[in-house]
Amino acid sequence: VAEVHADRAWIGQTTRRIEEVTGARVAYLGRLGEGLIPRVDTVLQDGDILNVICPAAQLDEVERLMDRVPPTD
Fold it and tell me: In this structure, are residues 35 and 28 in contact, taking their beta carbons and an 8 Å threshold?
């Protein structure tokens, strides 16, 4: 489990979209000082702290993807 910073452009995106783009599982979110286990339709809000599960070798790529504007497809 790793804490990952998300670019502000990800606000409003669902955890399903984050998982599709990064290949990592969103394990939980820190939101307003509370822990939240997200559903696939949970929407990322300003100030959320993402905690993801992925292979260690994939973490740099996940961080790179989340630090950029989400792709449009």
Answer: yes
